[in-house]
C-alpha cells in the first residue's frame, strides 16, 4: 500500500481544531506544492508510523499542521548551490564562516554586510540584509561538519563564476576581514578559512588558474 493510499481509509471522530491527513494533503496542494514535496515533508515531520496512524483516522493537531506547512515553505526557500548566483554564493559563504564558531557577533555582521555591498553594489542594502537572514536560517540548522562541507561546496561553485585569482584577491580578503572584526579568530573560523584555501588550491605550485 502506498503512502497516499492510506488516505482512503475511514475517518474517526476528531476534535474541531485538527484535521485528517487527507484534508491536510488537500490543503497544501491548494498552495501549489507537489505530491513529491508533500511526501518528503510528511515523512520528515511525522515519520512513517505516525503517518500510518493518521491515515487510519487519527487527527492531526493544528500545531502539527502549522509545522508541516512551515516546513514546506522553508524547503521552497532553500536554493540549490548549483543554481545560486555569485551574490547568493558569497553571502552564504560569509554567513557560513560567521557561524563557524556558532556565534553571530555584531562586529562581524556589520563587516559582512559591508563586504557583500562592496562586492555587489547593484544590490540594495535591504536586499543584502534579507539574503543574510535567509542564508543564516539555513546554515544554523547545520552542524560543524555540515557547515564546513557547505563552505567548501560554495567555494568550488564560485570557481564557475570567478578565476581562482579573483577569489583570492577580491573575496578571500573579505572573509578574513570579517573573522578578524571582533578581534578574535577562533579555531573553527581558522579551520574553515584553511578549508576554503585548500579548495582554491592556494599555494599549490603546479595548479592552473581557471
SSE topology sketch:
Blueprint: H1 21-30, H2 35-46, H3 48-55, H4 62-77, H5 86-98, H6 106-119, H7 125-139, H8 144-158, H9 164-179, H10 187-200
Q: Would you write up a description of this structure?
A:
This protein has 2 domains: 3-7 and 15-77, no CATH class; 81-200. Helices cover 63% and strands 0% of the residues. Mean pLDDT is 79; it is low at 6-16 and 203-210. The chain has helices at residues 21-30, 35-46, 48-55, 62-77, 86-98, 106-119, 125-139, 144-158, 164-179, 187-200. It is elongated, with a radius of gyration of 22 Å. It is an all-alpha fold.
Features:
mainly alpha, disordered C terminus, 210 residues
In summary, what is this structure?
With 210 residues, the chain is mainly α.
First and last CA, distance:
52 Å
Low-confidence stretches: 6-16, 203-210
Helix content: 55-70%
Oligomer classification: single chain
- Report the C-alpha radius of gyration, rounded: 22 Å
* Tally of structural domains: 2
Amino acid at each position: 500500500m502506498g503512502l497516499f493510499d492510506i488516505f482512503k481509509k475511514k475517518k474517526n471522530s476528531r476534535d474541531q481544531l485538527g484535521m485528517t491527513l487527507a484534508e491536510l494533503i488537500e490543503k497544501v496542494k491548494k498552495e501549489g506544492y507537489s505530491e513529491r514535496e508533500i511526501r518528503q515533508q510528511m515523512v520528515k515531520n511525522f515519520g512513517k508510523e505516525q503517518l500510518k496512524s493518521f491515515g487510519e483516522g487519527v487527527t492531526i493537531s493544528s500545531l502539527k499542521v502549522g509545522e508541516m506547512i512551515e516546513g514546506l515553505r522553508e524547503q521552497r526557500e532553500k536554493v540549490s548551490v548549483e543554481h545560486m548566483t555569485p551574490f547568493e554564493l558569497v553571502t552564504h559563504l560569509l554567513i557560513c564562516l560567521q557561524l563557524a564558531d556558532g556565534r553571530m557577533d555584531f562586529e562581524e555582521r556589520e563587516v559582512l554586510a559591508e563586504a557583500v555591498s562592496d562586492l555587489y553594489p547593484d544590490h540594495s542594502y535591504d536586499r543584502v540584509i534579507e539574503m543574510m537572514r535567509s542564508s543564516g536560517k539555513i546554515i544554523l540548522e547545520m552542524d560543524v561538519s555540515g557547515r564546513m562541507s557547505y563552505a567548501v561546496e560554495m567555494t568550488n561553485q564560485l570557481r564557475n563564476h570567478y578565476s581562482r585569482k579573483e577569489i583570492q584577491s577580491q573575496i578571500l580578503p573579505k572573509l578574513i576581514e570579517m573573522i578578524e572584526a571582533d578581534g578574535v579568530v577562533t579555531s573553527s573560523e581558522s579551520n574553515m578559512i584553511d578549508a576554503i584555501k585548500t579548495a582554491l588550491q592556494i599555494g599549490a605550485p603546479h595548479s592552473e588558474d581557471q
